[in-house]
Amino acid sequence: MAIERYDIVIVGAGPVGLLLSTCLARWGYKIKHVDMRPVPTITGRADGIQPRSLDLLENMGLKHGIMAYDPAKVYEVAFWDPQSGGKGIHRTGTWPSCPKFIDARYPFTTLLHQGLIERVFIADIEQHGTKIQRPWEIKGFSSDGVDKEYPVEVSLAHVNGDEQETVRAKYLFSGEGARSFVREQLKVKITHKDPIAHVWGVMDGVVKTNFPDIKMKCTIHSDAGSIMVIPREANMVRLYIQIASSTDPDWHPRKTATTEQVQEAAKKILKPYTIEWERVEWFSVYPIGQGIADRYTLDERVFMGGDCCHTHSPKAGQGMNTAFLDAQNLAWKIHHVESGFADRSILKSYESERKLIAENLLNFDAQYAKLFSQRQPSAGEVGSANIQTAGEQQPAEDNEFMKTFKASCEFTSGYGVAYNENIFNWSQNHPAQSPLFLSEKQGTTTQRTGRIMTPATVTRVCDANVVFLEQEIPLNGSYRLYLFGGKPSVTKNAINDFAAGLTQKGSFYSSYKRPDVDAVSHLEKHNPHSLFFSIATIFNAHRPEIEIRELLPEVLARYFDHVYADDIWDQRVPNAKAAAHAKMGLSEDEGGVVVVRPDGYVGCVVKLVDGSGTVDALNKYFASFTAKSLGGNRAQL
Amino acid sequence: MAIERYDIVIVGAGPVGLLLSTCLARWGYKIKHVDMRPVPTITGRADGIQPRSLDLLENMGLKHGIMAYDPAKVYEVAFWDPQSGGKGIHRTGTWPSCPKFIDARYPFTTLLHQGLIERVFIADIEQHGTKIQRPWEIKGFSSDGVDKEYPVEVSLAHVNGDEQETVRAKYLFSGEGARSFVREQLKVKITHKDPIAHVWGVMDGVVKTNFPDIKMKCTIHSDAGSIMVIPREANMVRLYIQIASSTDPDWHPRKTATTEQVQEAAKKILKPYTIEWERVEWFSVYPIGQGIADRYTLDERVFMGGDCCHTHSPKAGQGMNTAFLDAQNLAWKIHHVESGFADRSILKSYESERKLIAENLLNFDAQYAKLFSQRQPSAGEVGSANIQTAGEQQPAEDNEFMKTFKASCEFTSGYGVAYNENIFNWSQNHPAQSPLFLSEKQGTTTQRTGRIMTPATVTRVCDANVVFLEQEIPLNGSYRLYLFGGKPSVTKNAINDFAAGLTQKGSFYSSYKRPDVDAVSHLEKHNPHSLFFSIATIFNAHRPEIEIRELLPEVLARYFDHVYADDIWDQRVPNAKAAAHAKMGLSEDEGGVVVVRPDGYVGCVVKLVDGSGTVDALNKYFASFTAKSLGGNRAQL
Questions:
Q1: Phi, psi of A178 (to 5 degrees)
Q2: Cβ neighbours for A565, distance < 8 A, ≥ 6 positions apart
Q3: CA distances, A357 to each of A94, A350, A418, A620 (Å)
Q4: In A6-159, which residue ranges form alpha helices assigned H by DSSP?
Q5: Which residue from A214, A223, A424, B299 lies 20 to 30 Å from A370 (Cα-Cα)?
Q6: Cα–Cα distance for residue pair B296/B351, rounded to 1 Å
Q7: pLDDT value of residue A246
Q8: Which positions of chain A have pLDDT values less than 50?
Q9: Contact in structure between B369 and B352 (CB atoms under 8 Å)
Q10: End-to-end Cα distance, chain A
């Protein structure tokens, strides 16, 4: 019997494995996905979806399903400290969890049981023809290259050992979590940035309390210990309590505590408030050491992501979010290599981009966790400056903890994710050079390469719907070209020349035409010509003034559902006539082109000019990582 | 065998029957619900959800389920007229379907197949223990009063005649649609406001066209006839075409047309644009005469609603929306009578309130339909003034059609629904009199009794969530008391006195305590003390300044989840410090109390003062329709 072949074998159906599976299933890949648990997560585990991750889920069409579970939303974090004289805790301040300086669509953290989040992904994966095989585990693998197209052999088995299966695949991905068989086999080491390990207790349940901030995220320090409060869906609350630290004199990583012990500790910490449990849904004690895998892949065939590559304290709610972004980053890169768009070398950037983010996370976490586990100075020690004055929106004095917290808001919201300059993220050092590239450093655009595009609200021309521009093109594996068209009367020639450049033989756009381009339905909105590019055009004009088929050459007019009027006022740029143009830092008259990677991060920004310059610059940009050489020879036309 | 008894028998599972069933099932009533169709609507029928209805669906927690189907949204309506010289049609202007002068949360019409909307209701009804019995029909009924508690006997049968059942009920409701057995039996006449009848063709399908406004709502007049375009979910479009009118010389109400004939007509009308059908999902031809039932009930036991009571042209998209509001209006009134809160006489107001709205609808429809079916003057006839100038947001000249249309926006959005003064809708003529009642006529509040409360965005204190105040109390059958608390320092005494008045023996509030008040869970948010009242308190203060248990007396602090900070800036009242207070037309310092009926319409507005006055006024207001006498005797305390 011939050995079964798959594009990818994915081990583990937690957040990282599920998101990867969802993307690849949608894009038509053949997936073998196994998980050693018989069913999805029943209780406990991660639960925090950061603002930026909600954008991502919306972009995948999955936000609706998650919000249907009516999750808790955290808009503010409250800080509680001990009062002098044994009077128990008092609130020293609150801070927005995603402050206004961050331009977020959803400025809150969403809290929902991981199992419910998994269900939303699983339903989508099944709709696209992949079924997760449970309870199955990986028993062995070798990237032996015996079959050049399917170089990885993977052995899988039912956890009870009754059945086994050996398959070949182009890729193997481990989303197994902190205890990863694949990582062990690869002998990839975990580096501990912070040598201090902790034992954590975590308890989900329904409580009766007169503690006023029980529906907010709180960090509470008291003379009796520290605790973190996280609200949950269905009237639940999660408490994190630190049970032991490797800095304790009697430290033991196996130290544990019972439900009752943790409840008693919580009662003491919360004084003068009272707390009683009506129901405990889940309780667990586990040791966590901060760690990061030295490598995310050795050969760009066997990859790892999520907790498998980075572990840290659970308090900043980053685990699931970092896992999502690991998976998203890898998904489109594998897709571009396997579909012949990009050179195989781009796969190296998975590790370089994502490991940097994990390192930043761990640095942040070390600071944050250290402060959290230290007893804070009491009100008496700090003095009256620590008491919040009514009417002030922020504490009168920021202690070290709050300073770290504030500085980290951008990071924890997910909007701080910033990839370094590389082949995708244009910089002065990029192989593609042209005076038309705009850059944030030079002040010619606000858009920073390696960061997400600024959100902007616009009016869709064809149906007059008011929409979020950054959400209009779904996560479809395509680069997003945002053609900011400025004033139609000013840019008429530039747009015609841009369109001519796109259709020119050898351009980045025409080199990657769909093979079925002539058979594509007129209902196709995002990829009428190419599976690797979606184009949106935004004019500085009122919606009724824009006649799509009159203003745009055919190649652009074909994106009939992706033409927008930049005519919605925005509080952040109150004086702009064309708010989206202004937010991108582009001329409201002359526009410009913002190229966004399939994952929503800005690749490059180019001036929109008469002649071939704009497309020439884009040809150079894409040629630096596409499989074919681009730019063609004009004379050949 | 004893005859089975029900609180209500509902006949028909279209929008009116389903919404009534949903409310009553949630509030614990025993329902027999039958429908003669074997399954919910498969194709065709109504599809337009107006902005105000979306508010209602959200208030019922059903909007999520409907939006999950990804319906089309209509933000603008385009008008097309003939050009001179046989050049076909051209656009003469567009108009927002819910213009900015209406303060709507969702300023668009939602278009979705009726069957999908029905499914959302049916799932909810089944969750609450009622199952729709299909295909069953009503065979007879008599409101014989043999059983005083269950005065109505109803005979039901399977449509194939094999099975039958006779039951007794407190109420019978017909939501049977235009051909109502109940209405016929009651010999209730239909009055035709407008003697002109029409035959309509309606076609749902997927088209391929270069007509640029195919994703907008359009009214198109051409020399070859008139058509209305309505976008639909799943790339579909609905076309309405008038096939015959009783004003035609060869008028026949049975006149019909084939799919092909309607398609040919559409092709001619749309010239110079082309249109082809890829798929026709549904096509139907039906005669519609404008009509309104003389009575909605004869004895306040057998009621009718929806199409059973009013028929009109389908074009303004009002059918389903009016049906929803019929049902909602009846639901809480039956609930208040049957639960002993209100006097039985309030049931008379169902007909008086809802028939007025239907009459307004028919008046509007007659005007609108007449204009629609008339050929519009061509551009040549009208002159160049009819050509829209680029840059203008509205047509240079409004013809009669557009004038009517604009004037009707408030009405079609659902926000124009205005109930006359009566026992619920306070006025100078109301039996309850006090100098503390505020009124829009006197300019002491902006809130108009019999109209919905103005929407306002506020911050929930307990969890810092930014929320829609008008959505915070769900459709739970309770009156909503919005205590606008002004500045806490100013209103301290008034609020204490208000709370003292509420808890006073004999007050409207304490007279309708829950029988299980001592056993109510601390998790109950909306009805901790009474099933007939939910209270929200809104302070003119920043969220972190509000310590609920310090600022509010116990009775109000118990509504811990319904205390809000009026600290969100609103573009409509840009200079207000407390936007919600300002929008209600209340003093930002001193506040006031807005009493809202269970259906969201304002009942009365009362000044918030020191002493007993505020509650005294409310006691008088509620005493005018509650079952018990209120206000008590202060000396009795």
A1: -60, -35
A2: A458, A459, A461, A538, A539, A541, A542, A543, A545, A546
A3: 27, 11, 8, 28
A4: 15-26, 51-59, 63-67, 114-127
A5: A214
A6: 5
A7: 85
A8: 375-397, 632-637
A9: no
A10: 52
The C-alpha angle with vertex A314 and arms to A311 and A316, in degrees rounded to 5, equals 110
What pLDDT does B251 receive? 87
Least Cα separation, residue B108 to chain A (angstroms): 8
Cα separation, B520 vs B528, in Å, equals: 6
Q: Two tokens at B242?
A: 């008038």
Domain ranges of chain A: 4-46+114-191+291-364, 197-288+374-400+408-413, 437-636
CATH of B197-289+374-399, one of 3.40.640.10, 3.10.580.10, 3.30.9.10, 3.20.20.140: 3.30.9.10
Determine what percent of chain B falls in helix, strand and coil, rounding each to the nearest 5. 30, 25, 45
Residues of A in contact with B74 (CB under 8 A): 463-464
Q: A429-442 burial, b for 16+ CB within 10 Å, e for fewer?
A: ebebebebbbbeee
Cα Rg of chain A (Å, integer): 26
- Pick the more confident residue, B183 or B403: B183
Q: Do B231 and A463 touch (CB under 8 A)?
A: yes
Residue contact B76–A547, C-beta within 8 A: no
| A574 and B237 Cβ atoms separated by less than 8 Å | no
Q: Does B464 sit within 8 Å of A76, measured CB to CB?
A: yes
Contact A549 B523 (CB under 8 A): no
Chain A nearest C-alpha distance from B11 (Å): 31
Residue-level pLDDT at B581:
98
Is B4-43+113-189+291-364 a CATH 3.50.50.60 domain? Answer: yes
pTM of the model: 0.93
For B96, the closest chain A residue by CA position comes to A464
Instruction: Please write the tens of the pLDDT for every residue from B493-509.
Output: 999 999 999 999 999 99
- On whether the CB atoms of residues A592 and A444 are closer than 8 A, the answer is no
- The CA distance from B278 to A300, in Å, is 46
Q: In whole angstroms, what is the distance from residue A619 CA to residue A484 CA?
A: 18
Arithmetic mean of pLDDT, B342-354: 97
Amino acid at A116: L
Q: Cβ distance B168 to B6 under 8 Å?
A: yes
E strand segments, A411-555: 437-438, 457-460, 466-468, 479-486, 533-539
How far CA A329 is from CA of A24, A176, A324, A348, B567, in Å, comes to: 12, 18, 9, 11, 39
Query: Distance from CA of residue A288 to its chain's centroid?
Result: 23
Phi-psi bin for B12: left (phi > 0), alpha (psi -120 to 50), beta?
Answer: left
**A197-288+374-400+408-413 fold:** D-Amino Acid Oxidase; Chain A, domain 2 (3.30.9)
Q: How far apart are CA B21 and CA B320, in angstroms?
A: 15
Amino acid symbol at A605? V
- Give the SS3 label for residue B602: strand
One of 3.40.30.20, 3.40.190.10, 3.40.50.10260, 3.40.50.720 is the CATH number of B437-636, namely 3.40.30.20
Strands B291-293 and B533-539: unpaired
Say which DSSP state B27 is in: T
Residue in B with minimal Cα distance to A466? B75
Contact A212 B547 (CB under 8 A): yes
CB contact under 8 A, B462 and A215: yes
Shortest distance between the Cα of B332 and any Cα of chain A, in A, equals 26
Whether residue A205 lies within 8 A of chain B, CB to CB, comes out as: no
What is the helix (H) or strand (E) element at residue A617, kind and residue range? helix A613-623
What does the block give as tokens for B401?
Answer: 């059609």
Do the beta carbons of residue B488 and residue B551 sit within 8 Å?
yes
Residue of B nearest to A234 (CA): B523
